[in-house]
């Protein structure tokens, strides 16, 4: 190509070259001839110009200037220029010289305004464009251009869009949209469609799309469209249909789009007919599975946050509240998320009944996520409705209900409808499980399912099916339980307080055993609420609401609060009750309002409440003891009393609770017996309390009506229904006997297994609780079970004890009602058989009935004890004792009268009440009259019964006590096997035991020594008291109280004593060989001696009480205080004993105030009551004859006691002496030996005989000497004891609580005094003569007495030799004392000095011993009492001296000659004078003795074996002194007897004493003074005397 631009032009550019170039360009552009050539020339010209610039021949400014001129010549000039630049761009980019490239870019830059960017971008290289700054990055530009090119050149457009004809589509739509009701088939239409596609060149995919669109609009023609699509699909690829549907769903996936339901339905139908696969379609649907899981998690978190908000206590300010409200509003505004297409499809599937596909969609989502959307839940419910329809119509519709039938789905592929329960397993249970808590959306379906469950349970529980069917039914039953757990209960929680549903559900639940029900409630309460966000929220809201209600609940607003509680409980009872119970455990004052407010609950809720209570009780995290470990926790006590109240008031099933208690007992835990106790108390109205008054106790010994009216604290009415419910629960679940046996066994378990680590106080409490509950429960069974039920359940006594290892007391307690039932029914049978109506016939029949019923029992009891036992008591006696009750022994007439009078007063009040409407008046009066008649009838019936029982006992009594060993052994067995176990069993049993002892005495039972029995009971109560629990101590106290009452009655009046004890074998003091039947009056214990004995018992009680109080042991102190409180009416009666007690108790009050407040409270209570009894206490000399100033004076004092007719004091004195010396030692002996029994028996036998016989016996005197020796040691002890125990007698109360008997005593005393004074002189003379007679008598008696042994003689002889000198001293002492008091015959307290130096304290002790012995005296007369023996010795000697002048009974006086009387009178006068002198001496003695007492007190303690009293108080109190005087007198008597003749009997000695009286007394005074000096040595010698007395023993 020729160069257009010559070089000269360039060189001379400014001069002419520029113009030349301009002309050339203008010429070229104007030339129109050769287009292409011209164009090329212009291109060439422009190229050359530019290249000159690149080479540097021309400046770019010059070039750009010229180009600007040229550019206007042609329109396409910029494009041409751009081409030139393009070529240069390629060239320069290849060159290595940078300068040329730079020139090029400068040129292009200067020409930018000439050529547009877009043109340049088309023509130039991207790098150049980047350097020119036309584009930012060349790389991106490249990519973009590639994309654009691809789009433009490589994307293929629809092939026949340009060829299709619209008319084809119009025809297609007309075909599909025509009326299809005729005989048009899908095949026909399909042929037409094919023709249309061919004719109009239609796109087959597009045709399919239109078919689907039309199907969407005509959903009713499934039968047409489905086969059409199915056959059409043969022409397409299998995936095509799925893709087209996918595109349709995609179209609606915009945030604003909403997928139409018709599309879902079409997809569902195609899925159901398997025209597409779910997996293929599922991927096209939004949202993704991950998003769904995230959403589910978020919901759970939100639910928990709501819970946290509700449970947190926020002290909110107004600002924060406002902010929160704003936030909530914002949240509401936020756009709702786009459609969940998966759920839409699921709903459509459910609606058409395609369960398989629906299930697989739900499986890919979190549990219950799908059904938490209401439409889906409702669709699924509807499907279930349809499926269960036929079965429900057959078995579920309640009688009388019409119901609205549901038509089945038209779809043949829908699940098969259920016709039997077996069919439910296939689909329905599964559907329900997917529904879960969301069944709540359809209460009607809920009710249907429950009714089906009910019908199934009915069929399940009927027994007619075969083994295979049974197995199927078992499987179905477990399915029903699962459905209940996973569906019904959670759904109930989400229903809004629907009480009907709750009741409906209970209809099914009540057919389940309680174990299953409780399991379900447990799951519901502890698991279900955490499984779903909705339930989490509901739980929190329920608790919140419960708190709100409970805060406002009071007694006043029970009704409105109750309604709110009711509403809340219908849906969420477990949560609500859990909260309520937690509140009750904290605040027990809520119990009453809560119980009252629960009246609006449904039956299901009551059952849930029972479960919640048990769960709360079994809570392992709660401690059942308070922190001090001595008391049961208050939460447990609150729950127990709530249990009792709630179970009584509402019809709640008890089986679970009772079984829980039984299980706890099996596990060896007895805490929960508290619940059983409360439930029985509230439901059956049977109370067990130790606080019963005597009136209540008395009422409890009557019939059922009297018990109900007068026996309980609260008048518990209307317990008929509740006790029936309790009874049914026990019988239906066979819990009656197991609970009894478990409780009986657990009593010991409490101590030996459960109580290991626990505080003694708590162990006692648990033992009491266990025992009380057993008694209460046994009482309930006895009064509520029918005879047959009872007999059927309680095995025979030997089985109970030997196989079930039931303790004997409990076994008899359980069997007793059975014997009573059996006897009464046998008796009725016999009465019917013969119509004889005579009383005797009736009694005879009754006895026959008893024999028939009790004979097997007599056989059975033999196995309960070793054969040796039956040597002493017969099985018949044992069985009789254990099988009778207070009801059989006595009629509480006063109780019946009291209740009848109350009713009369009530009736009068009703008459006087003006306000009461007349019809109500009439009703009330009728009620009272009916009650009154019932009571009177009951009293009459009981009276007849008691008479029959007494007749029976009269006949039996001769075979009762066999006494093959000894009477003492018999009494031991009786107390050990009968009295002690039973008297602490219950309060009524305590009263029964005391009555029974008295009854055995009144029946004149052979071989039963009443004296021995009472003596053993009162002798040493320390061990029995110390081993009792709190309640047992209370019952033991009642027993002692009743025993003391009897003794006090006899003690109070000679007439009563003579009448009730005079000729009774129980008061024989000489126990002869069995062949001898001497009912000699002489062998009976006379009245005066009996009073000494009673005094001894009182003293013994005091000693034991003081010992217990001073041990410092919690149980000893608590128990003795309880016992003392119970026996207050009859003890203490004697002033000094009372004072001793008072001081001890006062000390306890001071010591325990800070340490043990419960002991302090007990002690304070007792102390106050004791003070109030003080005015009724009497001095010792009024309680029994004590101080013998002269022979005669003594007689007077002896009679001072409440009894006043004189009896031979000699007797009294002897027995008393015997008892006294024995008193101390008995305690020791008791513990030491059974072995010594025989020896003792012998000596004792000898002594009492002698004593009681009128004649004197040598052995007697020997014994007295023995005693004297012992006395030396004994006296010292005595003194100490006395000083420690200023005693009080129970006499005061004994004489009648109201003091009624006091006047009698006083009268007696007044009468006696004058009589005694008269008798004084005669007696002394008489006595001399008597002494001689008695000597003879004693010799005779020796021969009679089989038991007087050589041993006793030898001992006594030795002592006799030692004695004479001592006796003289004693005699002197006595005189001095008598003188001091002068003419008054009042017991004098002086310090005795024995000839051997001995501290006065010792005498004091002896006196106390004597008192104790008095307490024991009865046994002292019986052969077997070891202890008593010693006591006898002691007491008799002491008393002997004490009362030197025995008051002689009138019969004796007659025997005495008148001469003797005269002599004695003279003597007595002399004596009186001397007494006045002596009085002065005695004052001196007093002061000395006071000084000397303290020295001995320390030694005393050691000697007393723990029965110490505080020596501080001992100083000078009459009690401490009186013994001394007694002892002196005793010694006197001894000295006299030894002086005269060793073989003389005691009585002889006494008489001599009285006759020689006055002379000796002066001697006595001197010796007394000597003795006082000696006394200062005191303590050392005491010990010596101990030793000597032991030897003699």
Summarize the structure in words.
It is a single chain. This protein has 73 helices and no strands. The longest helix is centred in the C-terminal third of the chain and has 46 residues, at 1458-1503. It is an all-alpha fold. Mean pLDDT is 75; it is low at 1073-1079, 1187-1334, 1336-1459 and 1487-1593. Helix 3 crosses helix 5 (77-94) and helix 36 runs antiparallel to helix 37 (704-711). The chain starts with 6 loop residues before the first helix and ends with a helix.
Strand residues, percent: under 5%
**Shape by Cα distribution:** elongated
State the total count of DSSP E strands: 0
What structural class do helix, strand and pairing data support?
A: mainly alpha
Q: pLDDT under 50 segments (min length 5)? A: 1073-1079, 1187-1334, 1336-1459, 1487-1593
What kind of sheet is the major sheet? none
Could you report the average pLDDT, rounded to the nearest whole number? 75
Task: Give the C-alpha Rg.
Answer: 59 Å
Distance from first to last alpha carbon: 171 Å
Concise account of the structure shown:
The chain contains 73 helices and no strands. The protein has 1593 residues and is an all-alpha fold.
Helix-strand layout with pairing:
Blueprint: H1 7-11, H2 13-30, H3 35-55, H4 60-70, H5 77-94, H6 98-110, H7 117-123, H8 126-132, H9 138-153, H10 166-177, H11 186-199, H12 204-217, H13 222-232, H14 238-251, H15 261-272, H16 278-282, H17 289-311, H18 318-333, H19 341-352, H20 355-363, H21 374-396, H22 421-426, H23 428-435, H24 443-461, H25 467-494, H26 499-509, H27 514-526, H28 533-552, H29 558-571, H30 573-586, H31 591-597, H32 603-617, H33 634-649, H34 655-666, H35 673-684, H36 694-700, H37 704-711, H38 720-732, H39 736-754, H40 760-784, H41 787-793, H42 797-803, H43 808-833, H44 839-861, H45 875-883, H46 886-889, H47 893-912, H48 918-956, H49 967-983, H50 987-1002, H51 1010-1019, H52 1022-1026, H53 1030-1052, H54 1054-1062, H55 1087-1111, H56 1114-1126, H57 1135-1155, H58 1157-1173, H59 1180-1183, H60 1191-1199, H61 1209-1232, H62 1237-1252, H63 1258-1284, H64 1291-1294, H65 1302-1344, H66 1350-1381, H67 1400-1420, H68 1426-1442, H69 1450-1455, H70 1458-1503, H71 1518-1540, H72 1546-1575, H73 1579-1592
Helix pairs in contact: 3-5, 3-6, 4-6, 5-6, 8-9, 10-11, 10-12, 11-13, 12-13, 12-15, 15-19, 17-28, 19-20, 19-21, 21-23, 21-24, 23-25, 24-25, 24-26, 25-27, 28-29, 28-30, 29-30, 29-31, 30-32, 30-33, 33-35, 34-39, 35-40, 36-37, 39-40, 40-43, 43-44, 44-45, 44-48, 47-48, 49-50, 49-51, 50-53, 51-67, ...
């Amino acid at each position: 190509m020729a160069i257009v631009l010559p070089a000269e032009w360039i060189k001379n550019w400014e001069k002419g070259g520029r113009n030349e170039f301009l002309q050339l360009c203008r010429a070229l552009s104007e030339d129109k001839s050769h287009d292409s050539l011209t164009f090329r020339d212009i291109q060439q010209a422009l190229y050359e110009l530019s290249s000159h610039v690149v080479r540097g021949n021309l400046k770019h400014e010059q070039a750009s200037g010229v180009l600007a001129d040229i550019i206007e010549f042609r329109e396409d000039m910029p494009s041409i220029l751009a081409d030139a630049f393009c070529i240069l761009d390629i060239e320069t980019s290849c060159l290595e010289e940078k300068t040329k490239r730079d020139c090029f870019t400068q040129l292009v830059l200067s020409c930018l305004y000439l050529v547009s960017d877009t043109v340049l971008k088309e023509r130039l290289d991207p790098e150049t464009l980047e350097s020119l700054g036309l584009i930012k990055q060349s790389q991106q530009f490249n990519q973009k251009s590639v994309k654009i090119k691809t789009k433009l050149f490589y994307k293929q457009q629809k092939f026949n869009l340009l060829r299709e004809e619209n008319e084809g589509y119009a025809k297609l739509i007309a075909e599909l949209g025509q009326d299809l009701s005729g005989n048009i088939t899908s095949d026909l239409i399909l042929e037409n469609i094919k023709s249309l596609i061919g004719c109009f060149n239609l796109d087959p995919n597009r045709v399919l799309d239109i078919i689907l669109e039309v199907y969407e609009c005509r959903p009713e023609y499934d039968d047409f469209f489905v086969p059409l699509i199915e056959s059409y699909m043969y022409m397409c690829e299998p995936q095509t249909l799925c893709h087209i549907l996918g595109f349709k769903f995609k179209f609606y996936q915009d945030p604003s789009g909403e997928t139409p339901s018709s599309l879902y339905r079409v997809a569902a139908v195609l899925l159901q007919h398997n025209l597409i696969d779910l997996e293929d379609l599922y991927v096209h649907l939004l949202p993704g599975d991950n998003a769904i899981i995230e959403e589910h998690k978020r919901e759970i978190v939100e639910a928990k946050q709501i819970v946290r908000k509700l449970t947190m206590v926020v002290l909110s300010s107004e600002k924060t509240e406002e902010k929160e409200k704003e936030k909530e509003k914002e949240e509401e505004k936020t756009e709702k998320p786009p459609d969940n297409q998966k759920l839409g499809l699921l709903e459509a599937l459910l609606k058409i009944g395609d369960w398989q596909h629906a299930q697989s969609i739900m499986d890919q989502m979190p549990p219950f996520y799908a059904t938490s959307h209401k439409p889906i839940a409702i669709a699924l419910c509807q499907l279930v409705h349809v499926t269960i329809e036929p079965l429900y119509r057959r078995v579920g519709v309640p009688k009388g209900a019409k119901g609205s039938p549901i038509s089945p789905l038209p779809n043949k592929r829908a699940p098969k409808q259920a016709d039997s329960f077996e069919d439910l397993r296939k689909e329905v249970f599964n559907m329900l499980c997917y529904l879960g808590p969301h069944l709540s959306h359809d209460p009607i379906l809920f009710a249907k399912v429950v009714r089906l469950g009910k019908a199934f349970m009915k069929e399940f529980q009927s027994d007619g099916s075969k083994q295979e069917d049974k197995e199927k039914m078992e499987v179905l039953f477990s399915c029903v339980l699962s459905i209940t757990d996973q569906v019904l209960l959670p759904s109930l929680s989400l229903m809004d307080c629907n009480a009907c549903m709750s009741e409906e559900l209970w209809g099914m639940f009540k057919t389940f055993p309680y174990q299953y029900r409780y399991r379900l409630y447990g799951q519901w309460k502890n698991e279900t609420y955490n499984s779903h966000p909705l339930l989490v929220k509901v739980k929190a809201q329920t608790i919140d609401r419960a708190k709100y209600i409970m805060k406002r609940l009071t007694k006043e607003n029970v009704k409105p609060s109750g309604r709110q509680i009711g509403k809340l409980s219908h849906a969420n009872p477990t949560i609500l009750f859990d909260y309520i119970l937690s509140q009750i455990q904290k605040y027990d004052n809520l119990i009453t309002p809560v119980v009252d407010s629960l009246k609006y609950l449904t039956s299901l809720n009551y059952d849930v409440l029972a479960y919640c209570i048990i769960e709360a009780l079994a809570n392992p995290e709660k401690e059942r003891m308070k922190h001090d470990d001595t008391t049961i926790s208050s939460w447990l006590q609150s729950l127990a009393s709530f249990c009792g109240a709630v179970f009584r008031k509402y019809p709640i099933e008890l089986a679970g609770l009772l079984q829980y208690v039984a299980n706890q007992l099996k596990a060896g835990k007895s805490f929960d017996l508290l619940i059983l106790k409360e439930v029985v108390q509230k439901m059956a109205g049977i109370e067990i309390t130790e606080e019963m008054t005597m009136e209540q106790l008395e009422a409890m010994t009557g019939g059922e009506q009297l018990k109900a009216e007068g026996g309980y604290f609260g008048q518990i009415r209307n317990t008929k229904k509740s006790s029936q419910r309790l009874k049914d629960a026990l019988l239906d679940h066979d819990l009656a006997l197991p609970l009894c046996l478990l409780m009986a066994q657990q009593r010991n378990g409490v101590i030996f297994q459960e109580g290991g680590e626990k505080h003694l106080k708590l162990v006692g409490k648990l033992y009491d609780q266990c025992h009380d509950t057993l008694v209460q429960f046994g009482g309930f069974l006895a009064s509520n079970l029918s005879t047959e039920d009872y007999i059927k359940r309680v095995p025979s006594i030997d089985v109970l004890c030997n196989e079930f290892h039931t303790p004997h007391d409990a076994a008899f307690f359980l069997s007793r009602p059975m014997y009573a039932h059996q006897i009464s029914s046998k008796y009725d049978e016999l009465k019917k058989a013969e119509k004889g109506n005579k009383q005797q016939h009736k009694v005879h029949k009754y006895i026959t009935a008893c024999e028939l019923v009790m004979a097997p029992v007599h056989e059975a009891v033999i196995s309960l004890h070793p054969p040796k036992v039956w040597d002493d008591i017969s099985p018949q006696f044992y069985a009789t004792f254990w099988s009778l009750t207070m009801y059989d022994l006595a009629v509480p007439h006063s109780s019946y009268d009291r209740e009848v009078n109350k009713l009369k007063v009530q009736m009068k009040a009703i008459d006087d009440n003006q306000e009461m409407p007349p019809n109500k008046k009439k009703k009330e009066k009728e009620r009272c009259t009916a009650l009154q008649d019932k009571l009177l009838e009951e009293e009459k019936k009981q009276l007849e019964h008691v008479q029959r029982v007494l007749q029976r006992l009269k006949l039996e009594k001769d075979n009762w006590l066999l006494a093959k060993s000894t009477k003492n052994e018999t009494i031991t067995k009786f107390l050990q096997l009968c009295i002690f176990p039973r008297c602490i069993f219950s309060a009524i049993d305590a009263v029964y035991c005391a009555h029974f002892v008295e009854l055995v005495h009144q029946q004149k039972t052979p071989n039963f020594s009443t004296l021995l029995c009472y003596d053993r009971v009162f002798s040493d109560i320390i061990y029995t008291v110390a081993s009792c629990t709190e309640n047992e101590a209370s019952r033991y106290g009642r027993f002692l109280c009743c025993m003391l009452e009897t003794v006090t009655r006899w003690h109070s009046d000679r007439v009563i004593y003579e009448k009730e004890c005079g000729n009774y074998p129980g008061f024989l003091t000489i126990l002869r060989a069995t062949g001898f039947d001497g009912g000699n009056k002489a062998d009976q214990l006379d009245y005066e001696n009996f009073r000494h004995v009673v005094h001894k018992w009182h003293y013994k009680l005091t000693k034991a009480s003081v010992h217990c109080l001073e041990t410092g042991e919690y149980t000893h102190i608590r128990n003795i205080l309880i016992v003392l409180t119970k026996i207050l009416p009859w003890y203490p009666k004697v002033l000094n004993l009372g004072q001793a007690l008072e001081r001890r108790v006062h000390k306890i009050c001071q010591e325990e105030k800070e340490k043990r407040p419960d002991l302090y409270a007990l002690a304070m209570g007792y102390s106050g009551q004791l003070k109030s009894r003080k005015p009724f206490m009497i001095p010792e000399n009024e309680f029994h004859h004590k101080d013998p100033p002269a022979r005669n004076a003594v007689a007077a004092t002896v009679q001072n006691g409440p009894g006043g007719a004189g009896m031979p004091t000699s007797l009294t004195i002897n027995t008393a002496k015997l008892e006294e010396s024995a008193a101390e030692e008995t305690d020791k002996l008791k513990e030491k030996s059974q072995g010594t029994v025989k020896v003792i028996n012998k000596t004792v036998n000898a002594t009492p005989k002698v004593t009681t016989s009128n004649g004197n016996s040598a052995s007697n005197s020997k014994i007295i000497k023995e005693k004297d020796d012992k006395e030396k040691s004994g006296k010292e002890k005595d003194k100490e004891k006395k000083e420690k125990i200023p005693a009080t007698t129970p006499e005061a109360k004994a004489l009648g609580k109201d003091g009624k008997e006091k006047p009698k005593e006083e009268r007696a005393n007044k009468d006696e005094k004058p009589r005694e004074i008269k008798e004084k002189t005669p007696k002394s003379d008489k006595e001399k003569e008597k002494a001689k007679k008695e000597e003879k008598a004693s010799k005779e008696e020796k021969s009679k007495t089989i038991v007087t042994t050589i041993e006793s003689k030898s001992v006594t002889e030795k002592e006799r030799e030692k004695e004479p000198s001592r006796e003289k001293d004693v005699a002197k002492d006595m005189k001095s004392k008598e003188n001091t008091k002068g003419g008054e015959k009042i017991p004098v307290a002086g310090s005795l000095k024995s000839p051997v130096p001995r501290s006065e304290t010792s005498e004091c002790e002896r006196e106390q011993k004597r008192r104790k012995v008095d307490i024991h005296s009865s046994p002292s007369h019986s052969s077997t009492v070891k202890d008593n023996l010693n006591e006898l010795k002691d007491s008799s000697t002491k008393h002997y001296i004490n009362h030197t002048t025995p008051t002689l009974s009138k019969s004796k006086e007659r025997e005495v000659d008148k001469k003797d009387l005269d002599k004695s009178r003279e003597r007595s006068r002399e004596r009186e004078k001397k007494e006045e002198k002596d009085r002065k001496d005695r004052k001196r003695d007093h002061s000395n003795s006071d000084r000397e007492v303290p020295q001995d007190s320390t030694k005393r303690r050691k000697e007393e074996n723990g029965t110490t009293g505080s020596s501080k108080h001992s100083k000078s109190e009459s009690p401490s002194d009186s013994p001394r005087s007694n002892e002196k007198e005793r010694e006197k008597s001894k000295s006299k007897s030894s002086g005269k003749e060793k073989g003389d009997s005691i009585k002889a000695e006494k008489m001599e004493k009285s006759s020689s009286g006055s002379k000796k007394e002066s001697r006595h005074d001197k010796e007394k003074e000597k003795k006082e000096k000696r006394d200062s040595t005191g303590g050392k010698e005491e010990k010596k005397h101990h030793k000597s007395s032991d030897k003699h023993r």
